């Protein structure tokens, strides 16, 4: 069967280490099969709604050649309608470009067959009398065949998750002219397709034409869904004659396995990445892939309803208020991107056929409207945050606009289930992944109308960039590292201190980040997750609340002072001012502060703050017990908790210290600690560390790994990432993580077999066998390597 073929093909490709081009071709073939499977699963209930159920039809008795020809049965009609659809879809490969278009083409075929059933005399017995689209006068005795049969496209869209405007567009502009062409070529004949003297010839001619198509340019014969073994091989239901056969005990497990494979592959909804699982619940209602796709398109259309693909008056006013109006450059850039997109979208390649220009223009228009809508929201938010500061510098960033437009195009392609999947769009627009990922979080936070699947899709794209696409040899990441003197930020330099877990003794900071707030928390997710506020630590900081202006601007001198997570709050600024104007800090053991009326435990460290005396007032002295949070440089990290919405301000001082009054210890403040890293490089590594931490925790949980071993694995991983950055060139983040896991388990004698590690890794949503089966060992320079040399080497499981 095809299911077994694809399963064995994947194993063979892994064992033979075939090139990526071949893998992509097989994946495209499998996706076409999945689309057809999904459409057929939708075709059955719609057909049963319009016509009689072919599964309940009694089998025709065998007739001799002398007997007269009998009218077509419901089962014959079922087969004819499906064959007409797959043949039409094959000749309209630009319509079969995505799931939504294919589904609407199916509705057009059903509409045509319904109309012929009404037109053909004595063929109304094929119709389901309870169908809501039947004419009111159908049941009257003297009804005549309507000159112009009613169109049921609207009814089908209403009952079966269709989009009326798009379905009618396909019917008028593509389907009707094509059917007329089939009549001109004599493939279809007669005033009524179902007429007694025409149906058999029409069915034979249509099947013959489709067979020629399959043998020349087709991928596979989609009539397999109608075969006698369809249930066993694919999962489609059998007709009564075959359904009466009892399944043997040995065949049942095989069919169960095939059905599970089908159910797994027939879902086009993106799996939830590990970094978003805490904030997105799985859907409770069962939604079909077609319904999910059409709902995504409906949500997209509702987001842009009433808007036009040009700057609104409000956005135009914002642009004109800048020191240098960027209006002209923005409009011209959008036009240039649109031309590039349309050219690539309509161009045929070896992997996929080109689409019609009408579909390209339609997708582009939706993306342009979405771009201007989100750009306006971003500008309003930035204006409010910067208190009216001029936004010219940001609006003149070509990279920001191109990335935002590319992200909008990607959302539209995803909504239509297009096979042009990421990273197709950034390759077409020549965008570097290292720069593109910055706009993803900005877009999600700015647009509240995104569907759940859209948020998950963008989150998975960000993960793809962080794990592999940004680490390619020609990535802009290496230029950024070179500009920073090849100093890779450590986890401690980019993660806020309160987001680290405690060390083994519970009295200090560990190395592994805690589960901080998701890098992408959509406003709609907060509404759904009513338990969000109570289940999270109040003192934990969001992973990356950095503003758009900071993402696309170079940090100015001195701006790195504890501003990793945005601007300092007024409360923090006031504290800095006090600390720099005479406040004295002393940290000492509790035994040396015996005179203070403070409840402390024996041996506990306390912090004494003394403010200077002023005219008419004496100095104040405050003693605060410390719950020691030691760091790796012998200091104590103090996190004053502000009662306002301001962020905690980390203060570090050396401990242990001599008794109070020692001049050597007065004035030790936060300036003595290492400065936090800011800028685009720090943002990138912050997200990388978060992603790796989440995946490592998931593996450790599944393999029952101790906390001590988990911390050692993390230390090994972080050390390698910081001090051996070149190891990541043209490799995958998971490869480094899995190696660190296996090595540290070996060293500490808490062994986990490679097979056990791989088994747990395969259950992660992003897992791909190519990651651990084809691992780059060394690069051969282009001038000495043979063009046929393969740099990938197979890694066998041990």
Overall shape: globular
Ends: how far apart?
31 Å
- List how many beta strands DSSP finds: 9
The description of the largest β-sheet is:
3 strands, antiparallel
Uncertain spans, ≥5 residues at pLDDT below 50? 238-267, 278-282, 505-509, 514-542, 555-599, 628-634, 637-675, 782-798
- The CATH architecture designation of the domain at 288-465 is Orthogonal Bundle
Give the amount of beta strand, in percent.
under 5%
Class per helix and strand makeup: mainly alpha
The CATH class label of the domain at 288-465 is: Mainly Alpha
CATH H-level superfamily title of the domain at 288-465: Cyclin-like
How would you describe what is shown here?
Helices cover 48% and strands 5% of the residues. Residues 238-267, 278-282, 505-509, 514-542, 555-599, 628-634, 637-675 and 782-798 have low confidence and may be disordered. The strands form four sheets. A three-stranded antiparallel β-sheet has the order 3-4-5, with no helix packed on it. Strands 1-2 form a two-stranded antiparallel ribbon. Helix 3 packs parallel to helix 7 and helix 28 (707-723) packs across helix 29 (733-747). It is built from 31 helices and nine strands. The protein has helices at 2-16, 20-50, 74-91, 99-119, 153-159, 164-184, 199-216, 230-233, 240-243, 251-265, 289-303, 313-320, 327-345, 357-385, 392-395, 398-415, 424-428, 433-436, 438-446, 452-467, 476-483, 491-494, 523-528, 532-535, 548-551, 570-579, 680-703, 707-723, 733-747, 754-762, 769-773, and strands at residues 500-502, 509-513, 584-589, 605-610, 621-625, 635-638, 651-654, 774-776, 792-794. Among the domains are: 49-56 and 71-135 and 146-219, no CATH class; 288-465, Cyclin-like (Cyclin A, domain 1, Orthogonal Bundle); 471-501 and 676-775, Cyclin A, domain 1. With 798 residues, it is mainly α. The radius of gyration is 33 Å and the shape is globular.
């Amino acid at each position: 069967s095809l299911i077994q073929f694809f399963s064995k093909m994947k194993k063979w490709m892994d064992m033979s280490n075939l090139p990526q081009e071949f893998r992509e071709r097989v994946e495209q073939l499998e996706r076409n099969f999945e689309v057809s499977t999904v459409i057929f699963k939708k075709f059955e209930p719609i057909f049963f709604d319009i016509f009689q159920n072919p599964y309940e039809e009694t089998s025709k008795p065998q007739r001799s050649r002398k007997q007269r020809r009998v009218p077509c049965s419901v089962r014959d009609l079922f087969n004819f309608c499906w064959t007409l659809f797959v043949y039409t879809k094959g000749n309209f490969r630009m319509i079969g470009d995505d799931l939504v278009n294919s589904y609407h083409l199916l509705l057009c075929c059903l509409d045509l067959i319904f109309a012929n059933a009404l037109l053909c005399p004595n063929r109304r017995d094929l119709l389901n009398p309870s169908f809501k689209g039947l004419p009111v006068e159908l049941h009257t005795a003297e009804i005549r065949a309507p000159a112009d049969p009613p169109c049921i496209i609207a009814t089908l869209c209403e009952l079966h998750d269709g989009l009326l405007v798009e379905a009618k567009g396909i019917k008028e502009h593509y389907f009707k002219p094509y059917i007329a062409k089939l009549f001109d070529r004599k493939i279809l004949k007669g005033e009524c397709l179902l007429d007694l003297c025409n149906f058999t010839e029409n069915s034979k001619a249509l099947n013959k034409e489709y067979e020629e198509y399959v043998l020349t340019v087709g991928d596979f014969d989609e009539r397999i869904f109608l075969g006698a073994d369809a249930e066993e091989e694919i999962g489609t239901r059998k007709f009564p004659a075959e359904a009466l056969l009892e399944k043997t005990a040995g065949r049942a497990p095989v069919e169960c396995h095939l059905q599970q494979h089908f159910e797994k592959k027939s879902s086009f909804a993106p799996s939830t990445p590990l970094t978003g699982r805490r904030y997105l619940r799985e859907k409770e209602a069962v939604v079909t892939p077609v319904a999910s796709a059409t709902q995504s398109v409906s949500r997209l259309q509702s987001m842009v309803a009433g808007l036009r693909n040009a700057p609104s008056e409000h956005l135009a006013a914002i642009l004109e208020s800048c020191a240098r109006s960027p209006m002209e450059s923005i409009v011209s850039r959008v036009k240039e991107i649109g031309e590039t997109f349309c050219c690539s979208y309509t161009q045929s390649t070896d992997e996929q056929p080109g689409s019609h220009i009408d579909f390209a223009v339609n997708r582009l228009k939706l993306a342009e409207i979405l771009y201007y809508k989100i750009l306006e929201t971003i500008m309003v938010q930035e204006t409010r945050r910067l208190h009216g500061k001029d936004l010219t510098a940001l609006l003149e960033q070509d990279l920001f606009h191109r990335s935002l437009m590319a992200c909008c195009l990607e959302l539209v392609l995803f909504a239509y289930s297009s096979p042009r999947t990421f990273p197709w769009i950034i390759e077409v627009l020549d965008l570097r992944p290292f720069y593109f990922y910055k706009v993803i979080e900005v877009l999600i936070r700015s647009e509240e109308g995104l569907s759940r699947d859209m948020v998950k899709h963008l989150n998975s794209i960000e993960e793809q960039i962080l794990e592999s696409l940004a680490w390619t040899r020609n990535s802009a990441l290496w230029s950024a590292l070179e500009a920073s003197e090849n100093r890779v930020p450590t986890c401690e330099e980019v993660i806020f201190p309160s987001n680290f877990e405690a060390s083994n003794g519970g009295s200090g900071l560990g190395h592994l980040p805690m589960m901080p707030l998701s890098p992408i928390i959509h406003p709609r997710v907060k509404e759904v997750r009513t338990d969000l506020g109570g289940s999270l630590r109040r003192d934990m900081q969001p992973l990356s609340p950095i503003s758009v202006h900071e993402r696309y601007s170079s940090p100015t001198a001195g701006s790195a002072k504890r501003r990793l997570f945005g601007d300092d709050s007024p409360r923090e600024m006031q504290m800095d001012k006090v600390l720099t104007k005479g406040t004295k800090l002393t940290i000492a053991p509790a035994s040396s502060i015996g005179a203070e009326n403070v409840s402390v435990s024996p041996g506990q460290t306390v912090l004494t703050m003394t403010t200077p005396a002023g005219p008419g007032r004496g100095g104040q002295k405050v003693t605060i017990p410390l719950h020691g949070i030691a760091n790796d440089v012998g200091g104590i990290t103090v996190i004053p908790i502000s009662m306002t919405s301001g962020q905690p301000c980390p203060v570090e001082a050396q401990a242990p210290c001599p008794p109070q009054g020692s001049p050597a210890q007065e004035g030790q403040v936060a300036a003595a600690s290492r400065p936090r890293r800011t800028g685009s490089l720090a943002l990138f590594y912050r997200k990388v560390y978060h992603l790796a931490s989440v995946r490592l925790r998931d593996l450790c949980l599944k393999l029952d790994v101790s906390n001590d071993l988990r911390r050692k694995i993390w230390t090994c991983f972080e050390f390698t990432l910081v001090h051996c950055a070149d190891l990541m060139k043209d490799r995958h983040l998971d490869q480094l993580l899995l190696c660190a896991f296996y090595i540290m388990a070996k060293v500490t004698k808490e062994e986990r077999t490679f097979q056990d590690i791989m088994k747990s890794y395969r259950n992660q949503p992003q897992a791909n066998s190519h990651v651990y089966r084809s691992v780059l060992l060394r690069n051969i320079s282009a001038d000495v390597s043979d063009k046929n040399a393969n740099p990938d080497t197979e890694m066998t499981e041990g």
